[in-house]
Amino acid sequence: MKIDNFAPVVIPTLNRFDHLKRCLDSLLKNIYATKTPIYIYLDAPTKTEHMIGYNKIIDYANEVSGFKSVTVIKREKNLGAVKNGLNAINETFDLHDELIFSEDDNYFSPNFLEYMNKGLQFFRQEKNIFAICGYNYSIQMPENYSNNFYLWQGFVAWGCGFWKDKYRNVDLTVNSVSKYIESPKNIYKLNRVANHYFFQLLKIVRTREIVGDIIFCMHLVKNNMFCIFPTISKVRNCGWDGTGFHCNKEQNNTFSSQSIDKKNVFDFDNIDKISENKKINHILWKHFRIPAWKRIALLFFKNGFIYKLYHKIKKIIILKT
Predict the structure, then answer these.
(1) Which of 50, 56, 88, 228 shows a CA-CA span of 20 to 30 A to 290?
(2) What total of structural domains would you count in the chain?
(3) Domain span at residue 302?
């Protein structure tokens, strides 16, 4: 498949220079790096300790070569991680019809850009495909599954491709979440895909804090849409070192040491045969399954004694191990 358009890569960041450099270095190993524009949306520092990394990013961005272009957009005031990321996408969509979004702590396979651009091109007209995701969960694929990609009603922002028209159809508001989960029928549909969806949406309503990933998942279930995932992850997330937003420090390097695709090229297998795989759906449902007792705790004791006690015990167990 010949690629007729190369989407820009959008990266919101603040001061994590080492993460950003690792991310861009991995993208430079892709054969299509020279055809790829990079947009770095640099949030404004709020603390003195942010300035070292912030200034390093500015200096590095002015020197880095190997991409089609590198554009740095410096925010005049701090927007915060969520708003900076959402604004970055919308501002880039004012200039382009497609884009590839990356967090600054992602590390990519050498065929990531080819996978993303071919996916964005081929599935552009498929009304039931919402986005192209580059990450794959640490799951064992079914033995008889021969394709190198699959469909699922889930979403991961760790390296993903969007189309402007489909992205802007999403209602990224707390009110849309609140209204949707009022219906038991909708909750049932969510639980059939993954039973953690409802609880993450409920958290949005409780905290009034927008989390795009889970709202996208809700949008998929609501509209019977899917994302494309690779069977071998093309992204490794290195942000679970305590510096990432919504990322606690991981205990066993699950994400930062995850095996990813090492091939230099990528072509979609059996691309004309696009359908869900029930076995993969079931594997993912089990992967994200929340035990019944924890669901009760999350639902009824979110701010109460049992919920807090559970996390205290969990922390003690982790420390002892």
Answers:
(1) 228
(2) 2
(3) 292-321
CA distance readout (Å), 70 to 24, 36, 58, 99, 134: 11, 9, 11, 14, 22
Contacts of 51 (CB under 8 A, 6+ apart): 15, 45
pLDDT, tens digit (0-9, with 9 covering 90-100), for 96-118: 999 999 999 999 999 999 999 99
Q: Which residue positions in the chain have pLDDT lower than 50?
A: 246-248, 250-252, 303-305, 307
For 166-266, strand residue ranges (E) read: 226-230, 235-237
* 3-state class (DSSP) for residue 57: helix
Q: Is the pTM of this model over 0.85?
A: yes
In a domain, 3, yes or no: no
Q: Which residues pair with 100 in a beta bridge?
A: 9, 161
Q: Verify that 48 and 21 share a domain, yes or no.
A: yes
One domain for residues 286 and 296: no
Residue whose pair of structure tokens reads 């909750």 in the numeric block: 187
Burial class (CB in 10 A: 0-12, 13-18, 19+), 7: buried
